[in-house]
Write a structure and sequence with these properties.
Shape: extended
Number of helices: 4
Strand content: 5-15%
Radius of gyration: 19 Å
Order of helices and strands: HHEHEH
């Protein structure tokens, strides 16, 4: 399951017809809409505080630790964008010096890298590429 936003239902249907809507995990085009409840903020964008019992104990701390760890690892890693599959494979084969990198790849490319024994892992926290930042 994943979330996506479309300008309208017709925009979704047009993109779905052209098989542009794909699962980011498995690259399948067999994606369907699910019923959703819009998250309409309270007047003045004020939200009531959630009761402490609404989340498992320590969940917020665990998520914060994951976010902090990923940020620290990425700070020591080079962004290589779409050249990630080629660079990771070259490092694995010894054609390029091994170094920490991160970038973009399709699900199919990631499966090929993993099948070839190239050590890769998905990021756990959503990441905004440097070129997309304000």
């Amino acid at each position: 399951m994943f979330e996506a936003w479309f300008a309208s239902s017709s925009a979704y249907e047009e993109q779905q017809t052209r098989t542009l809507v794909r699962c980011p995990l498995c690259d399948s085009a067999a994606v369907t809409k699910a019923v959703m409840a819009p998250n309409i903020p309270a007047k003045g964008n004020a939200r009531p505080a959630l009761p402490a019992a609404s989340a498992p104990a320590g969940l917020a701390e665990a998520i914060a630790a994951i976010v902090a760890h990923q940020a620290a690892v990425l700070a020591k890693s080079e962004w290589v964008g779409r050249s990630f599959p080629d660079r990771a494979r070259a490092m694995h084969l010894g054609d390029e010096p091994a170094a920490p990198i991160h970038g973009e790849t399709s699900a199919a490319e990631a499966r090929e890298l993993a099948a070839d024994g190239v050590p890769i892992a998905p990021l756990l926290v959503p990441f905004v590429p440097p070129s997309a930042r304000n």
